[in-house]
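Q: I'm teaching a short session on how sequence maps to structure, and I want students to see two examples side by side rather than one. Could you give me a first protein with its sequence written out and its structure tokens following it? Keep the formatting plain so it prints cleanly on a handout.
A: Of course. Example one:
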Amino acid sequence: MPLEALVNGNFCSSVDVNDRGLAYGDGLFETIKITQGHPEFLSLHIERLQLGCSRLGISFCLQTIKHDIEKILPTVTKETAVLKIIITRKFTGRGYKPDSQAGFNRILTVELLTNDYAIEQSQGIAVRLCDTRLGVNPQLAGIKHLSRLENVLARGEWSDTGIAEGLMLDTDGRLVEGTMSNIFVVKDKVLLTPSLYRCGVNGVIRQVVINQLAQQLALSCQVADLTIDDIYHSQEVFICNSLMGLIPVVAIGCHAKSVGYITQSLQQALLRESEVHD
């Protein structure tokens, strides 16, 4: 349960029943790790939020969001927490037709981060391949929109607590992402991650790995169309998101992997980067 919630600048725990995010998934969200009162990689999260609003035609005011963040951050009293920002298009009447001039609603919540993922980062996790496929839609690719039913269905496929994540393919059989994460593989010392111009979420940590960490470590990094065979034939596999950081994958079904040197090097580089960023 959220410790605090801020709706359109006011501390409360309810939203309008006509909210278009509730009715149609007409909106976006960001999930941000807070460490010692500091939102990690905040500028990258805000950039993706702005991109998503532009893509969906939702008006957006950066200063309003910054003011809301400044208002809710003092409520964080624990060392680690989670800030969630939800943006929806304001209601202007029944029907699907959007109004780009309607303005936006914003919902910010803060809750505890109950898992520091230290064990998973050190020992790795087991994952499975999901049956649910991601639909191809370049208009929505990359952004973190509210319509996440494919991920919900995929995550509902298993209850085994020994499986930490599920990998998802698109309807054409290409590897895309995890239900809640992005994925990287290491093949012959080259870092590979799936192309996301057809579908999938361009995660903030994915961006950091590609644009910053790979260069810092002088790693060759390629964004490409991948299949599940690239997972099986790789030397290292890891997943990432803003809360868990980088987590090695040590088992995909009956295929075993080891926690590799490149993954460990990237973990250390991400830790250093998160301490200085924003």
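Q: Perfect. Now a second example for contrast.
A: Example two:
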Amino acid sequence: MSKLTRRMALMGAVCSFSGCSAITSLNTAAKPLDTYDLRPVSRARAGGRKSRTLLVALPQAPAALATDRILIKPDPASITYLPDARWSDELPAVVQSLLIRSISQTGRIAYVGRTDAGPIPDKALLVRIDAFDVSVLEDGTFEVRIDLDLTIINDRDQRVVATRLFSQSSEVLSDDPKMIVAAFQAVLNDILPNMSDWAVQKV
């Protein structure tokens, strides 16, 4: 088992006691963290352009994920965060930006933006982040998992048009933060185009 894996297991055990978040905040408050960003992805343009507007709401996420830290699960009952690394923004904002840019880059919808700005939409995209984390496996390797639940609604009457769960995982052999972030990007490379195509079809 790697040093990082043992360290995460220890931190996960400590986190089972109250006050862990406060202790972690004190330990990391003055420590600079490497910052990582993720890229939008969309397929080549296909199909006609729709004169529709779509606004993407800020995704809902559990408190453990609604942060700029990269969530690690040393075991099913424990959580901690990847040492010395963070996302470029809080995760819900990162996911919202990825979806907006990926859908926009298809060139098939007249306007795609956030729900707190822009014109009155034809449709709104609601997002729930069920998983965006790394699990430590029994053999010492890691598994990156992303589960995003998407729902399209009519803005006028709030009627649900369609809903779908997009889920995918990828194994990572190294606990190096760059390798873990690259694995997240590899998963997104597969599911972002599928999510964009699905959203365009339902708008």
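Q: What should students look for in example two?
A: Point them to this: Residues 5-28 have pLDDT under 50 and may be disordered. Also worth mentioning: Strands lie at 34-36, 50-56, 69-75, 78-87, 109-114, 123-136, 142-154, 160-172.
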